[in-house]
Write the structure tokens for this entry.
Amino acid sequence: MDTHMPPRQKLVVVGNGMAGMRTVDELLKRAPLKYDITVFGAEPHVNYDRIMLSSVLAGEKDLEQIVINPRSWYDENGIDLIVGDAVVAIDTAARTVTSAAGRVVAYDKLLLATGSRPIAPPVPGLDLPGVCAFRDIADVNTMIQASEQHSRAIVIGGGLLGLEAANGLLRRGMQVAVVHLMGTLMERQLDKAAAELLQRELDERGMNFFTNGQTEAIFGDGRVQGVRLADGREIPGDLVVLAIGIRPNVDLAKAAGLAINRGVEVGDDMRTSVPEIFAVGECVEHRGKTYGLVAPLWDMAKVCADHLAREDAVSDYVPAAMATRLKVTGIDLFSAGDFIGDETTEEVVFRDAARNTYKRLVLRDDTLVGAVLYGDAQDGGWYFQLLREGKPLGSLRDTVIFGQAFGNLAAGAPTADPTVAVAALPDAAEICGCNGVCKGKILGAIAEHGLTTPEGVRARTKASASCGSCTPQVEQLLTLALGDGYAAKPAGEKPMCKCTSHSHDQVRRAITGQALRTMPEVMGALGWTTPDGCHVCRPALNFYLLVAWPGEYVDDQQSRFVNERMHANIQKDGTYSVIPRMWGGLTTADELRAIADVVDKYAIPTVKVTGGQRIDLLGVKREQLPHVWKDLNDAGMVSGHAYGKALRTVKTCVGSEWCRFGTQDSTGMGVKLERMTWGSWHAHKVKLAVSGCPRNCAEATIKDFGVVAVDSGWELHVGGNGGIHVRATDLLCKVTTEEEVLEYCGAYLQLYREEARYLERTAPWLERVGLAHVKARVVEDEAGRRALHAKFLHAQTFSQNDPWAERAPGADAAAPFRTLATVE
Ligand SMILES: Cc1cc2nc3c(=O)[nH]c(=O)nc-3n(C[C@H](O)[C@H](O)[C@H](O)COP(=O)(O)OP(=O)(O)OC[C@H]3O[C@@H](n4cnc5c(N)ncnc54)[C@H](O)[C@@H]3O)c2cc1C
Ligand code: SF4
């Protein structure tokens, strides 16, 4: 035991909110043993994510889901948490704080993190029951209760907070009126054009707006009954929510004699005018500025923790540009930096009225200083990164308005795939603005802890744990880190995507039940909220329509992921890998010669044998693809679909033809299976295998459909997965003939095609529907099995076209593979 440890100092924290607890969290990382920590919180709760109150109000989360640090966290770190007891006095001479309940606690260092208070308009009626702010859990409970007993709500304030309150109350079934002093909504975050689009959209959802509306009185007898405006208009309401702004909560600091202006004044080291008292968060004023968003608080927390941890720390708080998103489901809105501009700036504007999208970039001296995005805010993170870097845009200037993917293409990147875009970001790029988490930290956590899901990333890093708008980027980072090992979670009964409230299953049922035969028909009949859908729903709809109407529905290439569009796997350096099909894993000298010629001719750097017994040509440049395919095609080979949500390979062992143990011709069986199933599209990738005896050299028991020869015939196994979550197959049944193997396989795959949700592999599908159900349909119902098999074969007559042959050099279909002309 170290007997020379210095005695612990006493740290008292006033305010159990977001900035205070983040500082403690950072401090524990730096100096876990330096302090005995006492935290006072005026609210009767553990630390929770205040940002997410909007989601709780909207019914999207419950209170338990927004807790940041449970009681156990305080206990494990030896923190004495006192909740429901506000600190009412600080004695800077005696170095003690006194709480409302009379507790007196001494400190060596004191941290003030008292946040802010809602501003109330100077009008009568503020004390009436039914009037509240939108600041804490108590306010949200007041609103939820009101929505259960009353029907009309008035929100005063059409800023970020007011609109989130209005949306939540609307979602809870209330009629909502929004009173806003200014002519346009969110004037502090949006320019006029974006604000008008927003108002129109919220208007269509049923919000009533009273812009240029100055509240003169809140009236009511016993309980609030409405609001009167200065121009005489009266709005009836049973609940009034005040959301006109916040003011730093400085009362305590002021009474203790600390230097105060609008907030508690702090230096770059987060120290107040009293050296042993620090302050962070919304209660502070730093170089004349106060704050109302979380991102800057994380930087303050780090700097403050540095100084609390070490007397000789040198870090300084440097304010950075800030970004905002509106957390109203289905509305994509982002603004950052100086989005208004002045005579020294220029604007680049893009508006697509049909798609309801609007983008406005503000540039100064060839650098991006502000951005407003409405309708499609996917590139918000990228613009924010450019803005923070402050580098001259140079050649990016002409295309920057079209977003990151286009910018990358113009700069010579091979694809507009968002994964490629996120790959191009530096490690320091901020992905989660709410929690200040950068790309490097997320990738590091994925690698270090073997994370495979967004939930895992959330738990380890807090990225995407708050407003959730960075979840797509987190998923792209998972894809980047894990490749095929990351299977985006299939949606269950939750909406398919933000374009619809219908789940995958509902959409599938509607497609067949209402005979919807095209994407516009589906979107029209089911009330899609976007004109063309998005990157989430389009591939799924394309697949569902393809399965429902084979031969009739025309596959939509634009709705496919980049690998399927390019008919090749994109690799991490932007080149592609090409895999020719080798039926059942067999090849010939001619095929090998042709492959060798192609490798020489196109200087393909790497040739590799895959786990599925195929040959992978790696490092093929995009413009070479059609030529490589043509040469392979000319030698009789077709695409191996190694890139698709489709039948990939049928792995085989050498079987009875060569092996001493083999009881059946597994290779021949594999070839027949592959001839039957190649080219079939599925909800996810599908792999088959055939082993010639129970020694199972082809590893058939971790495949989607595995066949194992036994003395009496063939065992059929289903639902295996060799990916990150290894799952051994379930035994479906035993059959005796090769014809039966083919029939059961076709029926099984067709059932999977008809029932699985897009991006759901056979393993989770089987677990969801149950083996008994699959047995009932494929084994016990002979007529049903035949029908399923027949449907599969029928669909195959339309889908067994080699995509390579259709895209020979010179043909129109090869156009996407030509490199883009340089954008002048
Ligand atoms: C509904 C809502 C939605 C929001 N959405 C976003 C968003 O999308 N993006 C974003 O960046 N920001 C958002 N914010 C703002 C963000 O929550 C704040 O910036 C952040 O919480 C400020 O952290 P803080 O620790 O300074 O204050 P707080 O989190 O408010 O914590 C201060 C705490 O101190 C306590 N306290 C005060 N005085 C005393 C005392 N004397 N003794 C003991 N305890 C005391 C208070 O009760 C409170 O719990 C939102 C805020 C709200 C209310
Ligand atoms: S699975 Fe059986 S038949 Fe096939 S190679 Fe292995 S031992 Fe031989």
About this structure: The first helix runs from residue 18 to 30. The first strand starts at residue 9 and ends at 14.
